[in-house]
Task: inverse folding
């Protein structure tokens, strides 16, 4: 018989181009296989330090992202009313000239009237540099509504935090606890790490109201009541301290537990005792005298007090014992509120203690600490933790994040074998970070970066009469330590003219008219609101995105961005690098394909805008532009001599790392190396980084520090105490009367827990949450032809108890209401769920007319958002004030404090989720019913 000839090994590709994925924030290495100059398929790069070849569904589906029908094709100018989606296509020269016309006068006369806020981009060191040189105080990225509590809580406590700042010691940990981690963050590294530790029998405990993803594969699931994680953590601290299961040697050497605190009543109460050089003092066990914490040979005493001038000074450890040994933190006192039996809290604490102390490990590695003492071994306590937005997005989230770090530190599990490890450029003490800058200087740049870490009231951004300098009211008495700004308050404040009116809102990749805003309907109304004379309240809106998102319809000028395979990006040590605990690493993206549309990379557009306006920082002394585009900037910009956006292949010959002269061929060297660069930390410098002289010296050589910066972990936060002192009536700068008590209550220098402001609304008693699915990343996924098949719609998941109470079955409909609004949506039962919590996937629901989806697409008919139930302001308190729905310390958006009421409902007449909105006019039309193409022969 004649058998058909089948090619069982077809030619896969003509060429492989290596770059960095952008389908989520993991920044994995990818191999892009090319045929006939087009993308054939995408796989993981096995040599890459982040993913080592592993690639998730999102990464593989990147091919559908760069071919999505929703891609914008040309610059657009609005011709219909805002919100209609009616545009005309224009040329880039008109687009740039229009933007310059709106911006240039502001730069010269009133830079604060520009509000420039970016979404989930990964070039924030560059966008902030642009805004700083424009001179506007109004810049931030999306961290204020994402996870600023996690970042700020970690940096103020220990000089770093989870995810991009650090990771568990996957090679040595024996007990791993996750708090509030959904599946989208750090996805591939966590999956790889979980596989590694479970393969050798390590135990995993997941603390989350919802058992999905990582929590589904955990050995133990703790279905905690949302917003009570801090209460649970402080109870664990209580049990461990009471049992003496804390690492006293670690506390005395590496933390401020022995630092002396003024215990008097008066303007110095709660502040550290310092020497003439400003260094905090401890009592030396050998001499019994107060001594600088870093003096060679000092042995800090955790118990000794000190009298000076009639004032008693007590070590921080005394204050911690007073607070956390109090019975209010006992398991029996917190169990009901946490939804965790007291017996189980004690059992978890006992397991943590057993692993930390009975299974301690030693590495035969000598190292020398910052006091000059040489240690023959590295002692490890193999308990590690990881947390993310689930504990961060509450109005008590900052203290909860701090509490988790204090728990780690008490156990001695930070920067030791088996514990939590920092990724370069962290650790960095607060003192190594800038303070915020917001001065308004027409025609001139700000004197420093917008965002930073206040050390006390003197660093607040208030004008001469006490009003906010920034449109989002960041760094004010309302949220003093708002290190990432408050992006969720920008449009609301601008619409209200509070604290002042703006002229131009300029946003990048921030879907604020849909899933990235609280009060979605209200925000749409704010964006279209007009004054009595018929002009828009926000006169000009410029928006840049690669896709036809819901936000496009509300802008006046659209600057279409490229997709991630069509542009240069820089994943920099100055920003959000791809480092691992054992290495400093950074990466690039580069145009592996050329756009088939008239679009430009947003960062290069910013360079052109800067050049047209001759912005300082972008302009040479002779008036010529410093850089022609973003790639030119990446190579030739120097933040300080020898330090640029990329650390690898520096110097004339490309043989220097960290510090070195500009290398004109640097981008090509990165491309040759797979799109990344890695500099490994030397053996013996890889643990105890904040105190290890070998690491400190290596970090200086890499340009991470200018000089060694050893420091103590801050169990007790003196900056917070300074704000509290001001509220108590001390100092030149004090809060307004209506905020005094809140500052006193919430700016406690030791982590605390308190109920959030959304408790107690009559009838609204059920917790409502969202999570990101593993196969999606924010809005982008639901236009992706492959990923849509995984999550084309989202039901409301309801626990068995509430399903029975309300006589609900799978597929029934329910009305879900809050003090702000209501939705009517389909429900499904979920047993592995906190029994007073409902939840759904985030950002699956789409508005008709957006993302090139058909109007009958399941995302637009059955998909929905909980955002319609959430307001950016809290319910009125009767005092006439606008209280933000945010953490009072940092301004973090309190997405997860939402409380709702649940009622069975009849299906809507059209069987579509409610509320419904009119379909937008699409500037790109709708995609074909079937999306298919063939690359190559």
Result:
């Amino acid at each position: 018989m004649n058998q058909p000839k089948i090619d069982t090994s077809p030619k896969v590709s003509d060429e492989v181009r290596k770059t960095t994925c952008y389908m989520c924030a993991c920044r994995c290495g990818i191999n892009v296989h090319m045929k006939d100059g087009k993308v054939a398929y995408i796989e993981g790069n096995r040599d890459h330090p982040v993913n080592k070849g592993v690639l998730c569904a999102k990464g593989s589906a990147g091919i559908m992202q760069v071919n999505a029908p929703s891609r914008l094709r040309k610059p657009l100018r609005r011709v219909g009313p805002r919100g209609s989606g009616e545009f005309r296509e224009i040329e880039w020269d008109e687009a740039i000239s229009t933007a310059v016309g709106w911006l240039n006068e502001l730069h010269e006369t009133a830079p604060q009237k520009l509000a420039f806020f970016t979404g989930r981009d990964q070039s924030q060191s560059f966008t902030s540099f642009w805004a700083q040189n424009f001179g506007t105080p109004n810049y931030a990225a999306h961290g204020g509504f994402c996870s600023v509590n996690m970042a700020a809580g970690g940096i103020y406590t220990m000089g770093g935090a989870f995810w991009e700042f650090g990771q568990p010691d996957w090679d040595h940990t024996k007990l791993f606890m996750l708090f509030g981690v959904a599946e989208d963050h750090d996805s591939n590294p966590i999956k790889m790490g979980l596989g590694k530790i479970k393969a050798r029998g390590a135990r995993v405990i997941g603390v989350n109201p919802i058992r999905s993803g990582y929590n589904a594969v955990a050995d133990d699931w703790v279905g905690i009541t949302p917003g009570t994680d801090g209460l649970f953590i402080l109870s664990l601290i209580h049990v461990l301290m009471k049992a003496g299961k804390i690492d006293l040697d670690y506390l005395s050497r590496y933390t401020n537990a022995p630092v002396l605190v003024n215990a008097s009543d008066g303007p110095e109460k709660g502040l550290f005792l310092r020497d003439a050089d400003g260094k905090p003092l401890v009592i030396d066990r050998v001499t019994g005298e107060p001594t600088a914490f870093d003096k060679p040979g000092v042995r800090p005493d955790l118990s000794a007090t000190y009298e000076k001038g009639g004032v008693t000074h007590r070590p921080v450890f005394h204050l911690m014992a007073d607070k956390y040994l109090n019975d209010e933190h006992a398991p029996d006192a917190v169990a009901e509120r946490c939804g965790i039996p007291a017996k189980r809290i004690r059992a978890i604490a006992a397991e943590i203690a057993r692993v930390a102390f009975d299974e301690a490990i030693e590495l035969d590695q000598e190292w020398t600490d910052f006091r000059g003492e040489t240690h023959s071994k590295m002692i490890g306590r193999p308990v590690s933790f990881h947390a993310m937005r689930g504990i961060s997005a509450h109005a008590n989230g900052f203290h909860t994040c701090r509490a988790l770090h204090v728990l780690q530190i008490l156990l001695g599990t930070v920067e030791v074998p088996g514990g939590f490890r920092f990724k370069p450029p962290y650790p960095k003490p607060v003192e190594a970070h800038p303070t915020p800058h917001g001065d308004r200087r027409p025609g001139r740049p700000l004197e420093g970066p917008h965002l930073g870490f206040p050390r006390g009231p003197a660093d607040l951004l208030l004008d001469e009469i006490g009003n906010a300098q920034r449109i989002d009211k960041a760094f004010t008495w309302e949220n003093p330590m708002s290190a990432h700004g408050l992006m969720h308050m920008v449009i609301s404040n601008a619409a209200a003219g509070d604290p002042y009116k703006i002229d131009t809102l300029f946003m990048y990749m921030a879907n604020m008219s849909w899933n990235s805003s609280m009060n979605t309907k209200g925000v749409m109304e704010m964006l279209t609101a007009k004054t009595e004379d018929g002009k828009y309240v926000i006169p000009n809106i410029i928006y840049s995105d690669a896709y036809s998102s819901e936000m496009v319809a509300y802008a006046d000028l659209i600057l279409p961005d490229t997709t991630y395979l069509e542009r240069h990006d820089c994943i920099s040590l100055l920003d959000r690098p791809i480092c691992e605990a054992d290495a400093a690493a950074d990466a690039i993206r580069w145009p592996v394909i050329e756009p088939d549309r008239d679009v430009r990379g947003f960062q290069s557009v910013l360079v052109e805008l800067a050049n047209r306006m001759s912005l300082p920082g972008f302009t040479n002394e002779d008036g010529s532009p410093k850089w022609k585009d973003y790639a030119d900037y990446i190579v030739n910009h120097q933040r300080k001599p020898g330090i640029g956006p990329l650390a690898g292949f520096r110097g004339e010959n490309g043989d220097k790392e960290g510090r070195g002269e500009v290398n004109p061929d640097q981008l090509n060297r990165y491309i040759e190396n797979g799109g990344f660069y890695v500099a490994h930390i030397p053996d013996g410098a890889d643990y105890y980084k904040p105190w290890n002289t070998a690491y400190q010296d290596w970090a200086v050589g890499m340009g991470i520090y200018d000089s060694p910066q050893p420091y103590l972990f801050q169990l007790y936060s003196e900056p917070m105490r300074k704000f509290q002192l001001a509220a108590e009536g001390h100092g030149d700068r004090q809060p307004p009367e209506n905020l005094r008590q809140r500052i006193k209550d919430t700016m406690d220098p030791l982590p605390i827990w308190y109920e959030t402001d959304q408790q107690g609304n009559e009838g609204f008693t059920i917790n409502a949450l969202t999570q990101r699915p593993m196969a999606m990343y924010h809005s982008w996924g639901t236009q992706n032809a492959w990923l849509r098949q995984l999550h084309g719609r989202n039901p409301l998941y309801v626990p068995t108890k509430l399903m029975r109470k309300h006589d609900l079955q799978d597929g029934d409909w329910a009305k879900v209401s809050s003090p702000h609004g209501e939705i009517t949506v389909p429900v499904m039962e979920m047993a592995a769920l906190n029994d007073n919590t409902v939840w759904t996937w985030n950002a699956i629901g789409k508005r008709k007319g957006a993302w090139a989806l058909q109007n009958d697409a399941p995302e637009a008919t059955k998909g929905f958002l909980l955002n319609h139930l959430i307001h950016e302001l809290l319910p009125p308190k009767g005092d006439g004030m606008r209280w933000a729905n945010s953490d009072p310390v940092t301004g973090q958006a309190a997405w997860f404090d939402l409380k709702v009421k649940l009622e069975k409902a009849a299906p809507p007449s059209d069987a579509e989720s409610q509320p419904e909105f009119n379909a937008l006019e699409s500037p790109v039309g709708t995609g074909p019913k079937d999306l298919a193409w063939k690359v190559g022969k």
The CA atoms of residues 546 and 893 lie 26 Å apart. Residues 766-905 form a domain with the Barwin-like endoglucanases fold (CATH 2.40.40.20). The chain has a mean pLDDT of 95. The first strand starts at residue 15 and ends at 20.
